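Archive entry: two folds, one per protein. Generate the first.
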Amino acid sequence: MNNKGIFRDQIISNFDWVIFGLTIVISVVGIFTIYSTGGSGGEPSRIYIKQIYWILYGLMAMLLILFIDYHSLEKLAYILYFLIIIVLIMVAVSGKTVSGARRWLSFAQITFQPSELAKIVIIITLARYFDDKKIRGLYRIRDLITPAVIVLIPAVLIAKQPDLGTAVVIFFIFISMAFLIGINIRSLFILAGSAIISLPFLWHFMKDYQRNRILTLINPQADPLGSGYHIIQSKIAIGSGGYMGKGFMSGTQSQLNFLPEKHTDFIFSVFAEEMGFIGALLLIALYVIIIIKGIDVVYHARDRSGSLMAGGVVSMLAFHMIFNIGMTTGMFPVVGIPLPLMSYGGSYLVTTFISIGLLLNIKMRRFVDMR
């Protein structure tokens, strides 16, 4: 067998079928859950058909990422970063406004949310920066100034849309990747202290509805028909599912339209009501397996850049999963963070497939020198 054949066999043999298989399984579960959310008059929602199309688009995007060596993406990092900043500025200037938020751009018949793609670009850009700027020992505050600026520019543009949830995810990605490269304890305490001190300033710049969501977390009963309605109805849905659930398309909170945003932010509540505690636990277990397998990719990647990219992807997926479930159970404020592969939405779903494709890309090239 020639070198090209050996190389191809090595790539294929390192493909992680477990991560890919679980991605498909959760996506299919998401389709059925969206179908069961119901439409007007109790009829099944038709948006599940759109979700199927988005999954197919996501699979095509994943396939494309698998064929591109992640080192090539790393080389293009700063160009991609510059382009995404331009696109985010375009959103701020001429983006499509829906429900008071300007987050979308439209080209022909396609509408997409650039802030979702920005998360992947930031992961690749930070990996490139940290891979280029190697230092001796642990990172200090002054070593993190430049990457912090890299993150801050798109985060501010996204927060102004307003999209506080995605901005928080981007910040968490930065913190996670900083931990991965190594940060000394003193700098860690300074960062934590700075975050605490900045809270009053952050509160000042928040929209009224964003402040209400945080206050509602403390006492949702203070405004049960207003800002507290989402959390109250979500907790009712999850609790009423019991151990075994009410059955497919038998959840009263969903079918009777008591639960808002049931196909997006609160898709987990719909699933938990229908499948119960056991079903919800099994779904969480699927996510945990993906995250554990992802951590394995982080620690066994061929090089530093691969490890950093994988770490960024894993932290992003983990944060979305933990925060969304925490949001639906009343542990975290409602900030519009979707559940990976389950929540309805084209931009986020395709981005999730791309991120998982990047993770598989790094795993496939674990033992192969592509440079």
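Generate the second and append.
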Amino acid sequence: MDLATLLGITLGAGLLLGSIILGGEVNLFWNPSGLMIVLGGTIAALFVNFPLKNVLGVLPLVRVAFTQGSRSPKAVIDTLVDFAESSRREGLLALEDKAQELDEEFLQKGIQLVVDGTEPELVRSILEIELAFLEQRHKTGQKVFEQMGAIAPAFGMIGTLIGLIQMLQELDDPDQVGSGMAVALLTTLYGAVAANLVFLPIAGKLAVKSDEEIVIREIMIEGILSIQAGENPRIVEEKLKAFLAPDQRNRLETEAEGERVLSNA
């Protein structure tokens, strides 16, 4: 579970609800008609704007936003260094069985290409093409939520116009004026909250997770090619650490030093 995403949405919703409770009657902010206009209109516009498969893929993308990544750069680097050590000791063919044990399809494919004797330029080309299409799929998912963030406030304004029209038609009936004004104001509120607390932040989180995934895959590509070139495992490790930010690199070095101390003890 990605606690940052859950905490952000929960905190934002809690603060909004708290301000409403402190300000007066909670029921004043509940309007089914306004929700129907904003959510129903946003979903309908998505079907017009995107292919069906992209719209149906919204729920899995929400799960991605709320899920912590299963792979860390350290784990990937450790795996590649271990493969480099095995390759230096036993040869590239020894990696075939180890590759079958991997639960990462991208890394497994790259190692298998190396074991099969594929030329380094072709290995890089195949893996980079797959990486490019992965990035494109991620961008499509981000665009869905970005579009939802743009559409929701627009339908909030549409709901405001509907409410104002209803209100103007019933100026002689105070009860109807109040109902129309509620729809007019609440749909704008619903659209703004949905866009700025849910849709756009999820699009941003998906972009961050996509960048992290791409970096990990780039580490894999460089590590696979270094193994194929027969480079020293320590050189491989130092090369792959270059992909990390300085603080991540220092943390990895600290952890490695701690592991060496424990092993010596």
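Annotation attached to the second fold: The chain has one domain: 31-50+70-256. The chain has a mean pLDDT of 85.
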